[in-house]
Design the sequence.
């Protein structure tokens, strides 16, 4: 693709100057009518948001120059003739590109478009005089010439008049469907597979990242390490966000992200957390708190009346051994965590020890001693396995066998409260399979940005899917946007996930954890793919046999993290098996 491919004029205002053009609306209509779909790819995307049109589970922009940045879009700076996706897209759009190509390049370029998708939509300038635009090497182009370039007649085409005052004001939009899908409905043609529409938005639990600073440097941090420190919160912002949550019937809010105490920098005296908790409580929302212990101990000392408003508490521990935990956190936090557990117990607040399962700590002796520690504090155990938001995190990822053996050890010692890990739940034949909850029943409100916006994402681990601004946009519009719909489409159509079609566990696993699948493919396959298969696919370990009896816990507590993340929660048995 030549440097000018995908654009007719240079300048940062390229899309602003073109967004009114009618051919974009023609293309948008085709994509909307053909939604939902698996993969939309825009070749020659440049600064335009065409790749965000319609409803697709995966969106890819390809251009030899940097593409515009849009939530949930995978951008690739690459020559189309050298780019390899590894699977056929549902739809490829290629708008105002072909006219820039030489006679030698245009044929191979077009043939690759047709071989790479079920449906291809192209646009070209219609009968623009040769030489009117110095970057156009194929003008003039009419229906016959476009058919010669593409090597076939289009399935349908239209001429779009943009500016009647200009002789060269028209564009030709052509749609090419694979012969196998000719004559089918537009939706089936665009997908090439069975489609289940995304279910309606049903988000009831929201996580809220409050910490805009953190004095600690945990090695596996997925929050501050993945973003920049933002502005300070103000009370009107809190009021606006809480109002949006109430208006949209959110039932539970978990306050976390770094340390939720640090809403306005590392000085806790400036924190708005007490005000946030009071606002949520006054509006009837169930409140969870995730902390390394710092936030709860501070609130108990300075704001004890606020502590009673908290419904349940998760205390983060990386190891049951003080030295290891402190080294992992970069500070002496082990005694603080234990004090927080004691506070919650004295207060009668349901509490959990939450551990990030990693290569070094998800071992039989670590898990047994962590369960023992939880038993001493009458606490639940919650496990989030590591999601590698950074490439460096991959060194601590769990191998698949360690993942399953670790959970087997936990189930030897605990009764389950929530089997929220989709591959594990599927392998155990869990009676209530749900798949990944992110974007479906839960979402994440991100910390305020340096620009003063508060975006929302389907998943706490996927910052690239954050969209909107809760300080100016309606929550309903945000969670109904394409990044969220991509997650719901993935859950509703797990047969789209690579390697999952025909699997006997598909109904319960539903393609596994979306974030883990995306991040694993990002770091190991060098292409973030929401439709990648979970690296802990239960079919990959056919010899693993669970000993879990499936009895369940008799706990009467309903914890905020149930059906909130791909997480596992268990209650230590009073008399553990040897």
Sequence:
């Amino acid at each position: 693709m030549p440097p000018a491919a995908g654009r007719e004029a240079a300048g940062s205002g390229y899309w602003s100057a073109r967004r009114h053009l009618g051919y974009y609306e023609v293309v948008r209509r085709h994509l909307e009518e053909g939604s939902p779909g698996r993969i939309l790819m825009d070749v020659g995307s440049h600064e335009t948001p065409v790749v965000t049109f319609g409803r697709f589970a995966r969106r890819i922009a390809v251009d030899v120059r940097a593409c515009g940045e849009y939530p949930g879009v995978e951008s690739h700076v690459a020559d189309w003739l050298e780019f390899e996706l590894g699977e056929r897209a549902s739809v490829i759009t290629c708008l105002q590109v072909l006219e820039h190509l030489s006679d030698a390049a245009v044929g191979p370029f077009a043939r690759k478009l047709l071989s790479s998708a079920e449906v291809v939509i192209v646009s070209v300038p219609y009968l623009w005089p040769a030489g009117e635009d110095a970057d156009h090497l194929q003008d003039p182009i009419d229906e016959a010439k476009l058919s010669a370039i593409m090597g076939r007649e289009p399935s349908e085409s239209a001429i779009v008049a943009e500016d009647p005052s200009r002789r060269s004001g028209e564009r030709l939009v052509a749609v090419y469907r694979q012969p196998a899908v000719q004559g089918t409905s537009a939706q089936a043609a665009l997908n090439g597979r069975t489609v289940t529409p995304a279910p309606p938005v049903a988000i009831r639990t929201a996580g809220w990242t409050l910490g805009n600073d953190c004095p600690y440097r945990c090695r596996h941090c997925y929050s501050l390490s993945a973003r920049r420190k933002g502005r300070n919160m103000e009370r009107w912002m809190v009021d606006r966000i809480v109002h949006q949550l109430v208006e949209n019937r959110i039932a539970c809010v978990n306050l976390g992200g770094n340390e939720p105490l640090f809403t306005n920098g590392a000085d806790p005296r400036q924190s708005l957390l007490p005000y946030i908790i009071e606002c949520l409580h006054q509006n009837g929302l169930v409140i969870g708190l995730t902390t390394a212990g710092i936030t709860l101990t501070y609130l108990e000392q300075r704001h004890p009346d606020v502590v009673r408003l908290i419904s349940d508490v998760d205390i983060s521990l990386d190891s049951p051994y003080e030295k290891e935990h402190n080294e992992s956190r970069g500070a002496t936090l082990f005694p603080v965590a234990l004090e927080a557990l004691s506070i919650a117990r004295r207060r009668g607040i349901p509490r959990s020890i939450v551990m990030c399962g990693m290569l070094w700590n998800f071992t039989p002796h670590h898990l047994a001693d962590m369960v023992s520690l939880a038993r001493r504090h009458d606490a639940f155990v919650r496990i989030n396995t590591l999601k590698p938001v950074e490439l460096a995190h991959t060194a601590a990822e769990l191998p698949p066998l360690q993942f399953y053996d670790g959970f087997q050890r936990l189930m030897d010692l605990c009764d389950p409260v929530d089997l929220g890990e989709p591959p594990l739940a599927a392998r155990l034949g869990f009676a209530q399979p749900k798949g990944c909850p992110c974007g479906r029943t839960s979402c994440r409100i991100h910390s305020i940005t340096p620009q003063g916006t508060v975006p929302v994402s389907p998943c706490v681990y996927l910052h690239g899917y954050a969209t909107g601004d809760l300080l100016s946009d309606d929550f309903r519009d945000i969670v109904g946007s394409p990044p969220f719909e991509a997650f719901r489409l993935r859950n509703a159509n797990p047969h789209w996930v690579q390697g999952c079609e025909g699997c006997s566990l598909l109904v319960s696993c539903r393609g596994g954890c979306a974030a883990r699948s995306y991040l694993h493919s990002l770091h190991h396959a060098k292409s973030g793919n929401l439709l990648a298969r979970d690296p802990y696919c239960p079919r990959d370990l056919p010899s693993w046999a669970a000993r879990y009896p499936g009895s369940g816990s008799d706990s009467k507590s309903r914890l905020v993290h149930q059906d909130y993340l791909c997480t596992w929660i268990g209650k230590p048995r009073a008399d553990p098996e040897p």
